[in-house]
Amino acid sequence: MATMLSLFVDKCHFSELQQLYEKMKTGYEPLLEAVERIKIEEAETRKTMLIEHRKREAAKKEKEVEERTRSGKDWSIEEHSLLAKAVGKYPGGTSQRWLHVSKFVGSKTPKECIGKAKELAKKGSSNVNTENAFQLYKTMLTKKNSKKERSPSKKKHQVKKV
C-alpha cells in the first residue's frame, strides 16, 4: 500500500491532492477512486511501452533478415540448389508455398527464401542454373544414400550375451 501511495503522490499534481484532501473530509471513497484511476493509467502505460518494445524488436529482426537476404553471403551453393529445386517443386499458387520452400531448404526462413528468389529472378537467375542445381541436388542425395549403405547395421555387430 505504501508503494501505491507513493506512486499516487508522484502522479498527482499539487492541486489534485488539495482537491482530494477536501473531498476526503466526507470519507475515503474519493481516495480509493483516485488510487484505482492511477493503477489503471499505470497499467495502460506499461502495456503501451511493452507493445512499442515488441514492435521495435520485430522491426529489428525483420531488418536483420532483410540485410542477410540482400547480402547473399549467407547462401551456400547447396542452399541455392535446394532453393532452385524447391521453387520447381512448389510452383506459384501452391498453398503456403514459401513455408514449404523454406522447410525444403532447411536453413532459411520463408522471407529469406522469397528475398533470394526475387533477387535471382531480377538477375535472370544467372547465379543459379536450374539444371546444375538439380544435378547438385542429385549428387547430394547420392552421397547421403551411399553413407547409409556403407554404415554397418547393428545386427551384424551385436554379440550374444551368455
Describe the structure.
77% of the residues lie in helices and 0% in strands. It is mainly alpha-helical. The longest helix has 43 residues, at 29-71.
Quick take:
With 162 residues, the protein is mainly α. It has eight helices and no strands. α1 crosses α3.
Question: What's the SSE blueprint?
Answer:
Layout: H1 2-11, H2 14-24, H3 29-71, H4 77-89, H5 97-105, H6 110-122, H7 130-150, H8 154-157
Helix pairs in contact: 1-3, 2-3, 3-6, 4-5, 4-7, 5-6
Radius of gyration: 31 Å
The main β sheet shows up as: none
Helical fraction equals over 70%
Distance between the terminal alpha carbons, to the nearest Å? 74 Å
Overall spatial form = rod-shaped
Query: N-to-C SSE series?
Result: HHHHHHHH
Beta-strand content: under 5%
* Total DSSP helices: 8
Descriptors:
mainly alpha, 162 residues, rod-shaped
